[in-house]
Amino acid sequence: MRASTSALECLIVTFDDSNAVSNSGLILPITLAERLGLRDLFDLHIDLEDRPGRANVGRKAMAIVASILAGGDCIDDTAILESPNAQVILGQIMPAPSTLGVFLRSFETSDIADVERVAALLLERAWLAGAGPGDEPFTIDVDSTICQAYGNKKEGAGFGYTNLRGYHPHLAAVGKTGDILGIVTREGNANTARGAGEFVTQVINNARAAGATGEITMRFDSGFFSRAVRDAASAGDARFSITTRMSKRLKGIISDIQEDAWTSIPYWLEGGADVAEVKYRQIQ
């Protein structure tokens, strides 16, 4: 690389190495995806029927995956992989952003289950190859997030508690590895607890179907504090920890705990944390 300038604000950078390849870090994850057969899974399980983007589903899906891994968050961002060396990195020619836009707009709500099937099968293949927990105990973190969307015609997009237009999906991931075990897209104004029980059941089933046989512990914040979540976790034979919503009665019970009943535990915040056990029955 050469750099030449006569003034700092006029800096000109020139790359003169013919062997340099942008975004070459994608080679590792894309190679892994190919070894696990992700492209073939898309081709086999995604059927867009006679819609405009139906051709070459696997190739287009892999291009979008690569763009996301490179930091892209919109269709136009896929253009960063349009280069003469793209085929070296991706093992395929990168479709134009307009082509990928037509492809994404060809999906309908009924296709969501097929995409989830692809994700579940990919996870199963990865875990069978040795990336999974096997018979070891593992923790699943369940949460919701806000995905901002733009435009007034985005189906399902709405204003939630953050006052941003978007979606409010549920997500679940393995605590140590970040492996995604489930994502459910929901309207932006959906309450955190809505559909949470069904989602917990789905996540546990996904983990078991992928080959995990060890003890499962699930962690939830107070948005998931509900009987449906508790019952779903219990039915799935999973241990669980849920942050309760504070009430005047609960605060009183906590304040009555004796000082010597608290036990210090390691914690990431300065000063650590303490834990104590107390019986509590929520009044319905």
Measured distance between first and last alpha carbons: 69 Å
Task: Quickly count the helices.
Answer: 9
> Biggest β-sheet: count, sense, barrel?
5 strands, mixed
Overall radius of gyration: 24 Å
Low-confidence residue ranges: none
Strand percentage lies at: 15-25%
Give the total of beta strands. 12
Strand arrangement across the biggest beta sheet:
8-7-3-9-10
The helical percent reads 25-40%
pLDDT averaged residue by residue: 89
Order of helices and strands: EEHHHHHHEEEEEEHEHEHEE
- Overall shape: it is elongated
The secondary-structure class comes to: alpha+beta
Q: What topology emerges from the helices and strands here?
A:
Layout: E1 2-4, E2 12-14, H1 27-35, H2 38-45, H3 57-69, H4 86-90, H5 97-105, H6 112-131, E3 138-144, E4 147-148, E5 158-159, E6 165-167, E7 170-174, E8 180-184, H7 196-209, E9 216-220, H8 227-235, E10 239-242, H9 248-255, E11 263-265, E12 273-275
Parallel strand pairs: 3-9, 9-10
Antiparallel strand pairs: 1-2, 3-7, 4-6, 5-6, 7-8, 11-12
What can you tell me about this protein's structure?
It is a single chain. A hairpin with a 7-residue loop joins β11 (263-265) and β12 (273-275). The chain has a five-stranded mixed sheet. It has a three-stranded antiparallel sheet with strand order 4-6-5, with no helix packed on it. It has 284 residues and is of the alpha+beta class. α2 packs across α3, α2 packs antiparallel against α6 and α7 (196-209) runs parallel beside α8 (227-235). The protein has helices at residues 27-35, 38-45, 57-69, 86-90, 97-105, 112-131, 196-209, 227-235, 248-255; strands at 2-4, 12-14, 138-144, 147-148, 158-159, 165-167, 170-174, 180-184, 216-220, 239-242, 263-265, 273-275.
